[in-house]
Structure formats: C-alpha cells, structure tokens
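_Backbone structure tokens_
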Amino acid sequence: MISTLMFKFNTILLLDKKHINIFLCLFFLILFTNCSTPGESEALKKAKEIKATFYTEEKEEDEDKPSNPPPKLNKDTALKNYVFFALKNNPALESAFYKWKAALEVIPQVKAMPDPNFRYGYYIQALHTLEGPLENYFSLSQTFPWYGTLALQGSAAFRIAEAERQNFEAEVLNVIYSVKKAYYNYWYLGKSIEIVTRNLKYLNDTVRFSKTRYETTVYPYTNILKLEIEDELYKNSLETLKEFIPPIRAQFNYALGRNTTDKIPFPKEVELPEQNYTQSELIDLVIRRNPELKSLGFLADAENDKIGIALRRYIPDLTVGVDLTTIHNAAQFNQDPLIITVGMNLPIYFTKYNAERREAKANKQKYLRSKEDKQNLLLSNLHSAIYNEKDAWGKMMLYKDSLIPKATKALELTRESFDTGQSDYNTFIDAYRELLDFELKYALYIMNYSIAIAKIAELIGPEDIEMKREVASR
C-alpha cells in the first residue's frame, strides 16, 4: 500500500565541476548535521559509570566456563557489604540496567536523518543528443523531515530511556529492601535458635540440680518428670527452628544473587536503623522522589512528544537531490547536464495521522492515571510501614526496658524459691516460659522495626535513612 505521494520539481542546469563540488559539499554538510538531545550525554555518562562500577564484564552463556566462586561471608560481615554484593551480582538488577542501556541506544537512531538515496542508470540503447549520446545516469537525494520532527523523536526516546533509568533505580531500591528483609529474617532465626539454646541449657541445669536434690533429700520425683517433659518440648522447638534454616537461607541467597544452597553464617548483631522525618515529610518525599512515579511521569511526557510528532505528519517532508547524466565525448565541451531535484511527500491519509495522534493522547492519559494509582498505592504502603515502625519501636522499648528485666528478676527469685522448696513447679515453669517468650518477642520486634525502616527507605530512597551506630542488645 502506498503511504504517501511524491511530488517532484526538476531544474536542469549545466554546471561545471567547481559548482558541482560546492553543491555536493553543502549537501553532505546538511546530511551529517545532527541534533543533540538535552540530557543525553549526561545519561550516557551515568550509565557508563554504573557499568564500570558494577558490571565490568558482559557475561556470556558458557556452560564449560567455571563460575567465579562466591566471596566468603562470615558472621561479622556488615549489612552494607551484603547490599553492595547484591548490587553487583543480582541478575534482575543487571537485566534492568541493560534494559536502560538499550533504551539509550535508541536515541541516536530516531533522531538521525533518513538514509540518502543513490541511483545509477546505464543507457543500454544510446539516446542521442546534440552534445552526443547519453551514457550514464547518477542520482543522489536526501529527505529532510519537517523542522522539529527529529528533535521530538529524540526527546521522546530520551524520556523513554529516562523512564527505564527510573525503573532501574526502583529495582536498586527493591534489591536493597529484599537483602535487608532477608538479612533481618535470617538474623531473627539465628537469634531465636540462640535464645532457645541458652534457655534450654538453663533448663538442663535445673533438671540436673533437681535430680541431685532427689538423691539427697525428700524431693517429689514428679517435678523431675515435668522438667524433663518441658526439656523435651523445647528440644523439639529447637529442632523445628533449625529446619527453617535452609528455606530462609535460600531466600537470603536469592536476594544476594547467589546459589540458593550456598552457606551463610548467621549475622552476629543488628544495627538499629533510624529515621528522623515526620509523616508529612515522608509523604512529600515519596511523591517527589519515588522512581516508579518518575518513570510513569517520563512515559507521559514521551507521549506528549509523540503528539507533536503526529501533528507534523500533516506537513510534507522535503526531498532535495541532484541527478547527473554523462555524455559520451562530453569532455570536449567540459560540461555534463546536472539536474537539481526538489520533491515532497503528499500527506493525504489523514485517517492514519489522526489515529496516531489519538493513540498518543490515550497513552498519555493511561500513564497519568497509572501514576495516580501508583502514588495512592505507595502512600498506602508508606502509612502501613510508618505504623509498623512505630508499633515495633514502642513494643521493642517496652520489652527491653521493662518486661525483660522484670521477668529476669522474677525467674531468679522463683528459681531460688523452687530450689529451696518454697515454690512449686508451675510457678517456676511459668516464670521460665514468660522470660523465654519475652526474649523471642523482643528479637521479633527488632526484626519488624528494621524491616519497616527498610520499607520506608525503599519508598523514599535509601540515602534518606541514616544508620544509627547502636547495637541492639538486651
């Protein structure tokens, strides 16, 4: 199907070689003149810096090539080192980076001039003229899109590339959050095993002491049996916790971009993060800085550029060219006929151009509505994270400053009374269970608080969350 009609106007001139050379120089000067899209060089520089920092070598599929062994991690490895490792090795993040990089390469393609058209003809049957028979025919032409079309195409491609850059930034935040969440979950599992193991040892000591009392004094054997039953129950709880190690470790390895079966030691301690923003400040940061919202904004702007491109479809593109015909033995005249051609396409299929413009407008509204919906979702997640952070912090301080110290003192007094026969088994075991429950809940609220702060950091950007150099401890 013919998309456009071409109208051409020819002027025949007889020019010497000097004028031909001047005309060709002007032609190629216009041909290779290109427009520069604002921000393109900065974006390319940023992509190059990221690639040099994180992705120094492009990976190829080679099953025979041995993979690099993962670096050794130990219990003293800091969270920030885990995050940096994930940023270098997470395949989903690397995929997002190359998607952005590929989008940048579209810009020079769409803002470049159309390819020039060269034609050659040979007169099989000579056409005789007064100057002599015609031999060869040469034609060179170039189409020039209407003013601003290439700039708009470059601008639209740049905005789409910027949207992919924001998607990459969103993936960075997601990877950081995933690593932190997996890190805190893995720490909580290790801390729970440590707490249960320590309390189980305490219970074992109590059982041995009770057996000694039974052998030397009058002591109810039923208390020993009850303690042994309690001991078996907590041993079973400990084994159940250890069964959680492979799946939780696999989640952590996945977030790091490692083999899911690789060994990772339990983190030693957790640094309590802290954020000093009010709720209204956090809401403002999400609206202004969240990369997912920025991405949708860039896509809407790109569709606005496409509306401008569609409007220019109604305006003809100009085609300028030169045709040269060589004449046998024309050297004696030192002249060959040169034809300057000027043509333009005739944009008459308005249905097509109208549809293109309506498509761009509809896509723009789609992205604007998607941005509004995404903003509502992000703010909803922010409110949930703020609530979880405040709730976990309050309960964490309650257990740390009040409940655990009191439960510890109560267990000590109850143990003394139990050893001397002044209190029964139920009183002692209730105090023991209460302290164990408080310690486990305290560790749980540390995890919940840290994950809530990590979620807030994902929503507003990790650079806005300062790490408080304070080790969480009882």
Notes: The domain at 5-46+75-471 is CATH 1.20.1600.10 (Outer membrane efflux proteins (OEP)). The radius of gyration is 38 Å. The chain has one domain: 5-46+75-471. The chain has twelve helices and seven strands.
